[in-house]
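Supplementary Methods, section 5.1.

A reviewer requested that the exact input to the structure prediction be made available. We therefore reproduce it here, unchanged from the version used in the analyses.
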Amino acid sequence: MDLTFVDAFTDQTFAGNPAAVCFLDRAADDTWMQALARETNMPATAFLRAQGDGFALRWFSTIGELALCGHGTLAAAHALWDSGRLPRGEIARFATRAGALGAAWHDGWVEMDFPAEPARPAEAPPALLRALAVEPLVCSRNRLDYLLELESEAAVRAVSPDAALLRTVETRGVIVTSRATTPGYDFVSRFFAPSAGILEDSVTGSAHCCLGPYWAERLGREEMTGYQASARGGAVRVRVRGGRVDLLGRAVTVRRATLTAG
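The structure derived from this sequence is encoded token-by-token as follows.
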């Protein structure tokens, strides 16, 4: 079976968020997919198998299956087009445990159709605030994550979480965000998910399903560009459409491999 390694939400190698894409030639059980995800040691390994007029798609981190993964979906769509398995003019259609997802290629950008995940006001757990050492302007939560708005981009960039303490908070992850001062961007963010085996994710597409509605309401705009200010960094263009969010990003193939065992 073929493996493709992709850097997502970037147009440069060794930036953005890395993912492995495995093209399954037969059905695979969860134990095997989890073992391969540990072997690739990527933040996400996407598993693709032809199904009907599209592809079944699942995502695994090194320690478990992911409920929703934007950069893994972007990597999967890019790998399909880049390998010639799907013509660039055709939409990549995915059946996932998060529902039906789609991706289209437009002038070097991958446009993905994702469900919106708006957040509602919530009380921040004391352990969360201690772990991040912040005093947020706003605390919200959706079904996946906490979202904390901080006072400035500098404050977002300065966060240095206590991973052990943050792991005690019952949540998939934590988004910290603020309005951007860096030219060309509307907001900045970072994403921490130690309970998923990732202290800090490089660029998190699914977090922008929450960030999109959040900043659309505050900025009065449906289309925005966010920058995830991790060490690798990456840009995500966001378009909010009611209950859906379009996420646009670039991707680069880094290497290809053939799986010879398992």
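The chain has a mean pLDDT of 96. These observations are discussed further in the main text.
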